[in-house]
């Protein structure tokens, strides 16, 4: 039987790493993308016994890296007949900042590159494989901040809003395509206790931002979800729910 493959960006930590374990546990071969090879290899080593995973180190903000990743995936999958069933745009960045003067345009450019341009370019580059594997699915990881501007969250919030708009655009374009396209959904995880949120919290503290108190309290009181719990909900969305409930949907855990 042909192997089904899931590609996960940002698979070296947090939600992406937990999702790799969850999907491998459900029998998928997982392709792990991120900049730090050692982090990806740790994720690979944590997969359940007998699972298959492979690391694809690369910076998805860089065009040549994206192209190399797309080419490598094709070379890896095509000779074996493996099918690219799931593409998860999970990597996300964006630094907090103090006031409007504090928003660094270069950080906004980086957040847009990772959170918006890369999901578009990787989806475009992998479309032949996703079409050939239909029913295939693309899942984008959004954030509630996209619709709730808060002090100091400019680069991250603006780029996540743009990602939500990209999701709408892809949904519309795919619906009118002459060929069968992958189904696309946007998943908003809520507050999740990950290395990413902990790093954000410390940077926001240095900026003196007001949402630090909320984050401190929520994390201390266990009001956040674990990466594993969110990964379970994402895996369920990817694999278990019907096309009718997945395609074009805005999903939460
Ligand atoms: N945690 C939360 O409360 C929360 C809430 C809402 C939404 N989210 C979203 O959930 C997703 C995962 O977040 P997380 O909390 O699990 O964060 P995380 O632990 O920081 O994971 C993000 C991953 O993205 C990778 N990454 C960053 N820049 C990259 C680049 N240029 N190229 C390739 N990979 C890159 C990082 O690995 P490298 O550094 O090795 O590249 C890292 O492993 C993000 O999209 C985030 O916005 C999280």
From TrEMBL:
InterPro entries: NAD(P)-bd_dom_sf, SDR_fam. Its EC number is 1.-.-.-. GO terms for molecular function: oxidoreductase activity. SUPFAM superfamilies: NAD(P)-binding Rossmann-fold domains (SSF51735). It is an enzyme of class 1 (oxidoreductase). Keywords: Oxidoreductase. CDD domains: SDR_c (cd05233). The keyword Oxidoreductase applies. The keyword Membrane does not apply. Belongs to the short-chain dehydrogenases/reductases (SDR) family. This is SDR family oxidoreductase.
